[in-house]
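Good morning,

Attaching, inline, the backbone tokens for the sequence recovery test we're adding to the shared suite. The designed sequence is right after.
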């Protein structure tokens, strides 16, 4: 671990002792949110991003060492390991370098060079490779042998060149140099696949006869070209100029101008075209794919965070509508706690008679259940349903459009069936829409993050890495907000630090059998929830109106005695201390610094006492679309309010209320140069946009945020 922490500290420019502390805490089973929030003294107050980077670097380091050990073991078993080779393998710090060194020793399918060696041609290859002045014909003639299947001089020279070509292609320094050439000088060239017509690849129109340098190719374009190739619609080449590469290779290996040198030159050409170029192209493809994956996953994770941390409406009584034309709008009434009180179907868009009936029912339900707000899903018939509700002019009841991406996934899931076993998927979907308005985080954790619709090529990237990143984001959001222990679903609880699916279910079961938790300490009575899990989860769980007011705050139970001493020292009680800025100012933190509790933790405690259980999410604000309902209602020059639904590396997609998101290209985001759209906008942000182009047949809307005032 010592070597690992040194390397990681250097790569991340962090103090080695802080890296060592993080690795030690992770090894003990601590989670990233717990370490970031409650172990600041040990880590030097590193945030979640830095701690996650340390974890990921260590996992990569471990994987590299595991592969190194496997190679050393294989070489030793085959009696190929020399002290020099072992030293070379121990020195390298990347997987590609490791594999390059191992390549000449790696068991492989039968090659032309192996066949040539079996025919006794390696001595000839060695003589030719030395490129001393010699009579090549007489030299090669000595190796002609019917017995060894070398019928003539040409066959002997061909076999020798095969050996030289393989030697060149497996030469570690050569591969290192050419790996750099492919990365720096390589060019992505995308063409229409053989046998395909332009109309077949209409989706990839932009990538037919397209080329750009490897070093500058953005991730989203790479993933698009890779997908087009995988679908058999594009032909993709990723190599440097062939003449440039061949000149570099021959200039290095051809050292003379004699007949032997001519054979080496031919071997260089064969080595590059048959062995080196395909191998390195495959490597550079993997590297580019990995780079593009990292970029796409980062974009997805960032968007997901914004969506999960969207402002909650809070505990309001909601009438939620999942709109539809032919099938009507599914209506549900929810209590302020999200409980289903009533459901039915209304038909507000099916003619005057049914609209009148729907209006009568909605007005009656608003009165019966004391409805405070409407939540309307933004799918089919959403704007028509919104217009219907607004025309009712019900006083003191707000109207909100809700992004319903993923609601259908939830409604058909096992989670939804367990919550509402007696309801069909339409009711479950409407409930999800209403609850999503009340608390986006609590509802969205029930859905696979990939189904929420804020990703970029999410189905093309490494699924293991994507899941890992999205799980990190969900856990980070859940723990930063905190979870109400007595009302949280098991889906929400399982993301709390130290819990997981089994303990989350056990908590819910205990709550069902014994009633509401009265204190955090009572968690220790939950089946299989031991001291370690309690330490990890307790600070992130809240108990509203608990006997001990600290149980409703983010103060960890391990610090309760410190807070109690603070209250005692200023002749106050805990209830008086919490939320009282005047009393807080009387506390001298230096008095409470100890070996276990440092200034960072004490500062956090004081901040928490000032605003206990504070929700870090923004305050909810209402939003209304302009009076446009379809793409045909738009025209150039219009200025409209919109909501950002997705942020990518090439721009942002904005919902302006016409069932088709418009694109604000990165060049149209601001009146200044923007290198990353996330510098300007985020998912769920309310913006003003100008329509600059409308393509109705292709359903494309181009928008601009330049010189548009909110």
């Amino acid at each position: 671990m010592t070597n690992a922490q040194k390397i990681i500290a250097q790569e991340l420019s962090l103090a080695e002792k802080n890296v060592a502390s993080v690795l030690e805490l992770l090894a003990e089973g601590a989670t990233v949110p717990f370490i970031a929030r409650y172990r600041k003294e040990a880590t030097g107050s590193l945030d979640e991003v830095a701690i996650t980077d340390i974890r990921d670097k260590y996992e990569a380091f471990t994987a590299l060492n595991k592969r190194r050990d496997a190679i050393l073991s294989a070489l030793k078993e085959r009696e190929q390991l020399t002290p020099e080779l072992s030293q070379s393998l121990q020195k390298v710090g990347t997987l590609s370098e490791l594999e390059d060194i191992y390549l000449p020793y790696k068991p492989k399918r039968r090659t032309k060079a192996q066949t040539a060696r079996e025919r006794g041609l390696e001595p000839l290859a060695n003589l030719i490779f030395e490129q001393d002045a010699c009579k090549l014909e007489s030299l090669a003639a000595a190796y002609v042998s019917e017995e060894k299947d070398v019928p003539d001089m040409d066959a002997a020279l061909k076999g020798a060149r095969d050996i030289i070509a393989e030697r060149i292609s497996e030469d570690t320094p050569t591969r290192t140099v050419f790996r750099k050439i492919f990365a720096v000088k390589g060019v992505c060239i995308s063409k229409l696949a053989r046998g395909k017509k332009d109309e077949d690849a209409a989706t990839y129109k932009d990538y037919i006869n397209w080329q750009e340098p490897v070093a500058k190719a953005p991730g989203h374009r790479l993933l698009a070209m890779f997908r087009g190739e995988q679908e058999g619609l594009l032909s993709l080449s990723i190599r440097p100029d062939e003449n440039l590469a061949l000149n570099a290779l021959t200039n290095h290996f051809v050292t003379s101008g004699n007949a032997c040198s001519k054979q080496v030159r031919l071997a260089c050409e064969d080595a590059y075209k048959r062995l080196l170029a395909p191998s390195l192209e495959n490597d550079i493809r993997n590297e580019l794919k990995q780079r593009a994956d990292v970029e796409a996953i980062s974009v997805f994770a960032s968007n997901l965070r914004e969506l999960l941390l969207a402002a909650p409406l809070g505990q309001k009584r909601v009438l939620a509508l999942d709109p539809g034309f032919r099938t009507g709008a599914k209506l549900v009434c929810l209590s302020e706690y999200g409980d289903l009180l009533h459901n039915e179907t209304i038909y507000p868009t099916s003619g005057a008679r049914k609209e009148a009936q729907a209006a009568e029912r909605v007005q009656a339900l608003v009165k019966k259940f004391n409805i405070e707000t409407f939540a309307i899903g933004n799918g089919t018939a959403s704007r028509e349903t919104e217009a219907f509700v607004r025309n009712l002019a019900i006083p003191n009841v707000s109207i909100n459009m809700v992004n319903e991406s993923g609601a259908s996934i939830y409604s058909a899931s096992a989670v939804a069936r367990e919550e509402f076993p007696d309801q069909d998927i339409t009711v479950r979907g409407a409930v999800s829409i209403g609850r999503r308005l009340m608390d986006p985080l609590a509802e969205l954790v029930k859905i696979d993050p990939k189904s929420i619709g804020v990703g970029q090529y999410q189905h093309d990237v490494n699924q293991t890495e994507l899941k890992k990143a999205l799980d990190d984001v969900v856990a980070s959001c859940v723990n930063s907000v905190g979870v109400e222990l007595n009302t949280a679903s098991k889906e929400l609880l399982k993301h709390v630090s130290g819990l997981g699916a089994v303990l989350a279910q056990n908590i819910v079961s205990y709550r069902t059998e014994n009633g509401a938790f009265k204190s955090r300490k009572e968690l220790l009575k939950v089946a299989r929830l031991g001291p370690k899990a309690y330490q990890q989860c307790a600070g992130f769980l809240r108990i509203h109106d608990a006997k001990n007011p600290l149980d409703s705050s983010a103060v960890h139970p391990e610090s309760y005695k410190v807070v109690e001493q603070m209250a005692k020292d200023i002749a106050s009680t805990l209830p008086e201390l919490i939320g009282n800025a005047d009393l807080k100012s009387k506390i001298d933190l230096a008095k409470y610094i100890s070996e276990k509790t440092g200034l960072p933790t004490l500062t956090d405690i004081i901040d928490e006492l000032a605003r206990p259980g504070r929700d870090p999410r923004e305050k909810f604000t209402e939003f209304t679309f302009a009076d446009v309902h379809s793409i045909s209602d738009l025209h150039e020059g219009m200025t409209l309010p919109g909501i950002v639904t997705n942020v990518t590396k090439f721009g942002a997609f904005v919902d302006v209320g016409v069932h088709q998101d418009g694109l604000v290209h990165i060049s149209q985001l601001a009146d200044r140069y923007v290198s990353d759209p996330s510098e300007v906008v985020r998912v769920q942000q309310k913006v003003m946009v100008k329509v600059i182009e409308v393509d109705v047949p292709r359903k494309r809307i181009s928008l601009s945020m330049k010189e548009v005032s909110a």
